[in-house]
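Predicting holo structure, flavin-adenine dinucleotide bound.
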Amino acid sequence: MSEKDAKILIIGGGFGGLFTALDLSGYRQVTLVNDEDHFLFKPMLYEYLSGEVEAWHIAPDFKDLFEGQVEFIRGAVTGVDLDARTVTLGNRKEPLSYDVLVFAPGAITNYAGVEGAEEFSVPFRRLDDANHLRRRMTQALDSIPPDSAPQDTRNALTFAVVGGGASGVELATKMADLLRDAVKRRDLHGEPRVLVIEMADRLVPGMGEEIRGVVERALENSRVQAHTETRVVRVTKDSITLEHNGQHAEIHTAAVVWVAGVKPNPLIESLKAETDRRGLLLVERTLQLRSHPNVFALGDIAFYADVSPTLAGTAQLALQEAHLCARNVRAFLQGGELKSKHFLELGEAVSLGTEHAAVLSAGKVMTGPLARQARFAMYTARLPTWHHRLRVGASWFFEGTAPRPLKPLGF
Ligand SMILES: Cc1cc2nc3c(=O)[nH]c(=O)nc-3n(C[C@H](O)[C@H](O)[C@H](O)COP(=O)(O)OP(=O)(O)OC[C@H]3O[C@@H](n4cnc5c(N)ncnc54)[C@H](O)[C@@H]3O)c2cc1C
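Done. Tokens:
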């Protein structure tokens, strides 16, 4: 292979894959394969659920982002043969070949073998998941006859969010605010009931004390019920069974949303490469696989030594790794020196309901509506491509970011 003709193939168009592709865009032949036709800025999926942002803001099409500089192929990768240097797709007879592979298919929801969880709960990782959840919330509201007793409203609007990490808290406060707003607009009696279920003895266990107090107050304000030291035993079509202190309780639910953890994409298995005990690919500090130096892996599926536990499994990390990856792919092809990097924590920004947020930067916490604006500003800067950032920034500035109420279906 001459360096000029090298084919670079990227699997996965998330934070790791997309930002590597954009960095390499225009350099050699770069192809990105993804099972959906758009990127997704996952940290704002909560705002998409509440209608504070629109799909085009956080899920731009790859074709628009690449502007012809990177080839995009839509398809689900079903296997990778590292020795033959080929990748198989579910919708193509012929495998794709590569000289350099960038492997970044991300994580998947981990249901931890809980009975009924995978079948009946709603995951929260894709645009369609948010659409589905919004529909379930609207259907639950639509099912309540006018003049129902407060208790009936509460029963019809009981939602459980499983997982008390940042995702669970962000989701639960958004859902509670949206539902309460809809109850008011529809003149219903009573209140919605949103539960967060967490196995540990406290919520957001990975977060520092500075931000935890703010999160706890936000949960109280949104009247979210937190159940810690509580295990989910079973999920059915319309219920969740919990275990706390050896006691079981079955609760009727309109929906159960599962954000209680992730596991590496099972595509890793086809690589037959070295993994750690959680199944993450072990990569060199250059992001190369030990066994195959022409294969780079990053993001949620890679274990990179020297990364703090709070940074692992985040978009912040995948994004920083992407720039190192693109740099090292170039160096690899040009016979240059490959580098490593110490990745930084860029601060935390948590959305808390539809009107507030908390931003932690340089050890200081900012809260309230101003923090919500700061979060939007911070995330505008991290969206892919200047062109997209400008369009989205202008839309948020001029058209606003007010939530879209849960109107009855058919309106
Ligand atoms: C709701 C939510 C909120 C989050 N909020 C934050 C936050 O506030 N801050 C933060 O730092 N991190 C956050 N994260 C975590 C962050 O999104 C991930 O760590 C990050 O996306 C990892 O990047 P990645 O490139 O490894 O994987 P991903 O971004 O998940 O991208 C993987 C891509 O590969 C595609 N893919 C998967 N399998 C295949 C296949 N077989 N064939 C083809 N394509 C495939 C997927 O469709 C996806 O596009 C959040 C995650 C979620 C789900």
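The chain has a mean pLDDT of 95.
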